[in-house]
What does this fold into?
Amino acid sequence: MNLQEAVVEPPYVAFAIRPNPGVWEYVRVNSEDLSVEPITSTQYLKFKERVYDEKWLKEWGFEKGWGDTAERVKETMRTLSEILQAPDPVNLEKFFSRIPTIFKVVIFSVHGYFGQADVLGLPDTGGQVVYILDQVKALEEELLLRIKQQGLNYKPQILVVTRLIPDARGTKCHQEFEPIIDTKHSHILRDATIKVLDLMEGKPDLVIGNYTDGNLVASLMARKLGITQATIAHALEKTKYEDSDVKWKELDPKYHFSCQFMADTVAMNSSDFIITSTYQEIAGSKDRPGQYESHAAFTLPGLCRVVSGINVFDPKFNIASPGADQSIYFPYTEKDKRLSQFHPAIEDLLFNKVDNNEHIGYLSDRKKPIIFSMARLDVVKNLSGLVEWYAKSKRLRNLVNLVIVGGFFDPSKSKDREEMAEIKKMHDLIEKYQLKGQFRWISAQTDRYRNGELYRCIADTKGAFVQPALYEAFGLTVIEAMNCGLPTFATNQGGPAEIIVDDVSGFHIDPLNGDESSNKIADFFEKCKVDPSYWSVISASGLQRINECYTWKIYANKLVKNVPIPSDEPPKPVGKQPSLKQQGTRLFLGS
It folds into this structure.
């Protein structure tokens, strides 16, 4: 083999090889991971052209980044020309969304055990870990695509910063640095600012906080380094507990609301932009104030009074709804992708009549469809409420079986008083209404892949998913179920009311009216008995809704597009007069 030529364009080295007369081969080597891939002669010649004629665009006053093809460069320059002649919002957004400004991202998730395996179910550790790992994968893909489309060879870096926990309980939470699975340039860092600067060889372009503690830490880092900050609250606690502000002294020993409410207020005001999953999170509905809206003015008697906490008309608010990992949560109809290795375990989980540590109760009539719910066992998630609706409804009990996944069976295994009370209530309902033979209670499940197949197995029975929460900020299990093609009934209090178009892509239920909700579910199954195709219509409509609005690709695109262009202007006070853009937002929100 005869090496004829090498072209260096970091981090790549391209080689032209002549193994025999008249025979040429070309390969590209990545100097960072030493991976080798064959390339075409066209790709090799592009390498040479960039090296030998690299500065032709600079001679005209243009840096790299206008596009990866002549057509894209032309389109970007045409857009700029139109803006210079007659600026309009559409072209401005189009142009600025193409400017490559985000290459290094830091994401904070401080509480709980943040890891990639064996952490779900540990203290303060649940869906937020799944959310952020999926967010990172989608964000990296979006950044790689945008950077490539603009003709750049830079590689993005994403660091998830969390706590280092010496007593890691069999997880990797004691490791300072850990690559994120299924990504190329993303890692978990269990350290802080100095290490971030060292690993990224400079300041990050964007820092994203998650939850109260992560948002506060992100605010401190953004202020210290002078970088763009985004906050994601996920769920602001203030609206979950009635009069939690004026009763803070009573609730503080358990919930520390005085600290939490002020930390949330500081973070939302210091942030350059706020990412929410739903409109209701910002401004609520006609009947219920939004989570952010509740921070506009409130008092903690004896501590402080907040008279201008947040302006819900501020354009810093951006709605970007997350999705579910579609390699795990995919339609039940995709038979070739089904995880059949889990079927024996799921069969046992659903239908084995012997009680054990994983399931109690049994289903005597396996031909009935299954209504299914999966959540934490607490008052707000209202799983015991769903069991009570079912228990009291003769129609439902004749039509379907009920399967619940959540919590423990033994109250002594829980350390949470609220969960203990819910466990006792579940046992009382089983005995009072004689639910054995129609009801299966499965303990909390942490294997996402098996859970995905469990949704699909429920769909095989022509069942449905029910999310009965008293309030749900977003509703990730709703997204998961609809992704799997499972018709879904979800609370009308919070995010699911936006995810589902009632009677089209699923159904809204009132968690405060059990009779109405159980009748609505029964109506659906009676209609499916008369017209079996109706089940498939709702299933397909739910999938369509997800693919149009609730995927990680859509989320990542919105997030990157909405990052504000950095400026040297000092931050404005919260109580300033509304700008024209804020007035437009006010009109959109219906004020």
Remarks:
- The first strand starts at residue 3 and ends at 9.
- The chain has four domains: 3-52, 67-99, 100-319, 335-549.
